[in-house]
């Protein structure tokens, strides 16, 4: 049995244009053609498409996907195990706490002992207490919230300014990598994604690579976080998301 490009598009949730592109670059060429020359996909093609979409979801570049699927010495079972680990961890962490903990981190809103004047000096016109009630109501019983609260309560104005400067320097360097045309799954971008993860560990709470991919989802899914990174540089939210996913794969 074979399927048209339109049917496959509906099955897989991808556009017809994407399927055409995969065919053009040799990543997924349909096994047959109709009498009129239209693409026809069989079950083996659908299996390959499923693998492609798994790898893409986990941040692999198209050329990497092609190399993995076409390398006769590659172990597809091992890659599937890695995919399963990353996806399972992401789902579990997203369900528990990603949104609120990230809100807490970015807004600097937990236990900040600053005067109004000092808050303005550190955060400008951004209110560090904006989401405090929302976060505490939803996630106040989690270990990560408690750890972030404990650390933040001990920080002085100088500590916040130092962290702000470090994060701003990181943002400038990521902007420079983007300007250079380097891909999000390249070494330079992945190294900065790793640096961002380590900042979270040092400033707020222990952040695993798996949990970092959960946070990456928030950068593109939540308009508040997307805006935060887009204000640094247009396109940064998606670029950072992809770099974090690639770094997660690199560190499996």
Order of helices and strands: EHHEEHHHHHHHHHHHH
Q: Please state the overall shape, judged from the principal axes of the Cα atoms.
A: elongated
| First-last Cα distance | 38 Å
Number of helices: 14
Q: Numbering strands along the chain, what is their spatial order in the largest sheet?
A: 1-3-2
Helix content: over 70%
Strand content: under 5%
How many E-type strands?
A: 3
Overall pLDDT, averaged? 80
Category from helices, strands and their pairing:
mainly alpha
Which radius of gyration do the C-alpha atoms yield?
A: 22 Å
Q: Uncertain regions: pLDDT < 50 for 5+ in a row?
A: 107-111
The largest sheet, given as strand count, sense and whether it forms a barrel, is:
3 strands, antiparallel
């Amino acid at each position: 049995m074979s399927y048209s490009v339109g049917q496959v598009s509906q099955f897989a949730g991808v556009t017809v244009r994407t399927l055409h592109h995969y065919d053009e670059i040799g990543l997924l060429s349909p096994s047959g053609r109709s009498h009129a020359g239209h693409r026809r996909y069989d079950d083996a093609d659908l299996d390959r498409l499923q693998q492609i979409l798994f790898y893409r979801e986990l941040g692999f570049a198209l050329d990497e996907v092609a190399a993995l699927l076409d390398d006769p010495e590659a172990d597809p079972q091992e890659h599937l195990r890695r995919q399963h680990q990353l996806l399972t961890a992401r789902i579990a962490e997203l369900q528990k706490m990603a949104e609120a903990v990230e809100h807490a981190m970015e807004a600097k809103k937990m236990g900040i002992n600053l005067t109004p004047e000092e808050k303005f000096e550190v955060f400008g016109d951004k209110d560090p207490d904006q989401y405090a009630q929302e976060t505490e109501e939803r996630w106040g019983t989690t270990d990560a919230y408690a750890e972030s609260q404990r650390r933040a309560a001990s920080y002085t104005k100088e500590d916040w300014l130092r962290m702000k400067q470090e994060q701003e320097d990181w943002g400038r360097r990521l902007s420079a990598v983007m300007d250079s045309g380097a891909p999000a799954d390249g070494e330079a971008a992945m190294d900065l994604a790793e640096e961002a993860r380590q900042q979270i560990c040092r400033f707020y709470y222990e952040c695993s690579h798996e949990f970092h991919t959960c946070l990456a989802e928030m950068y593109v899914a939540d308009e508040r976080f997307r805006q935060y990174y887009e204000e640094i540089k247009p396109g940064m939210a998606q670029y950072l998301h992809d770099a974090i996913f690639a770094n997660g794969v690199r560190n499996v």
